[in-house]
Design goal:
The chain is mostly helical and 287 residues long. It is built from eleven helices and no strands. The radius of gyration is 35 Å and the shape is globular.
Length: 287
């Protein structure tokens, strides 16, 4: 479905400032080395020659929008090294690159980063579609089960009535639990809806309401992830720290035992009877 090249060349995806300066001066003379993705798309559309520069622009655009998109509205400067040998672009192993990027992001619980096609399929696969007449089959991987026809059909049903964003269809039960955890700061999805309705301006139109809900859901989910990572980082102890803690605990116990002994000795000293002073009578008995 993706038709990505699976060649022998490794995809070079890293920052090389010297290379960036040279290539950017040729592709974007007088402009920024990291143009907006929208401007990059316009350049690709308006380019009239089928030469290496067109291939380079197209590669930058595909990497920034589908293969390795980021949350930034500008293209990533990590794409420049793969343009060095653009004539052999069809020999790049983009399949392995996409798999490695997804593995890296998913291992770090970053579920919204990586190949855009994967993120899209993951979303569609999480929707409750049992009541639709879809022939998805029993493929091991969702990318093999979802056809373009099925994606178009479900996508048309999931589009919001007053907007062009998704979210009309319900999620499967197992994914509802994930959403509930992400909305935990608001007491779950129901609490989030109540909070939004309470704080929305009375004059808010339906289209603005949908947009605000979507933006706040993304923000709440990201904030929940950041706070979770922060708490895990604060509470995680290394082996060395654990050893130090054990040593500190031992020293504290020893100090406590010593204090108890000293206190006991002091109490014992106070309980010993004071010596009685024997004095002489000042008066003498009369005979």
């Amino acid at each position: 479905m993706t038709s990505l090249p699976r060649g022998q060349l490794e995809v070079k995806y890293y920052v090389d400032y010297d290379l960036e300066v040279v290539i950017a001066a040729r592709l974007f003379p007088g402009g920024s080395s990291r143009p907006k993705v929208s401007d990059l798309a316009r350049m690709v559309e308006q380019y009239e020659r089928a030469d290496d520069s067109f291939k380079e622009l197209w590669m930058l655009f595909i990497m920034s929008t589908v293969v390795a998109p980021t949350t930034d509205n500008k293209m990533s400067n990590k794409c420049y090294p793969m343009l060095v040998d653009i004539a052999r672009a069809n020999e790049l192993n983009l399949c392995k690159f996409v798999a490695d990027e997804l593995h890296d992001h998913l291992s770090n619980q970053k579920y919204t980063k990586g190949c855009l096609l994967y993120c899209m399929l993951r979303y569609f696969d999480a929707l409750q579609t049992d009541h639709f007449e879809l022939e998805l089959g029993n493929a091991r991987f969702a990318i093999n089960a979802w056809s373009k026809l099925a994606i178009d059909a479900v996508g048309a049903l999931d589009v919001q009535e007053y907007d062009t964003t998704f979210g009309s269809l319900e999620l499967k039960d197992e994914y509802k639990e994930v959403v509930a955890l992400e909305m935990g700061l608001f007491g779950g999805p129901d609490g989030f809806d109540s909070w939004m309705k309470l704080n929305m301006h009375p004059t808010c139109m339906q289209k603005q309401r949908v947009k605000a809900f979507t933006l706040m859901q993304n923000f709440a989910s990201s904030l929940n992830g950041l706070l979770s990572s922060l708490v895990q980082g604060l509470t995680q102890c290394s082996d060395a720290e654990s050893s130090d803690d054990d040593g500190d605990s031992y020293n504290e116990d020893a100090d406590t035992e010593l204090s108890k002994r000293e206190a006991h000795q002091n109490d014992a000293s106070r309980n010993v009877a004071a010596p009685t002073k024997v004095g002489c009578a000042t008066g003498h008995a009369k005979k």
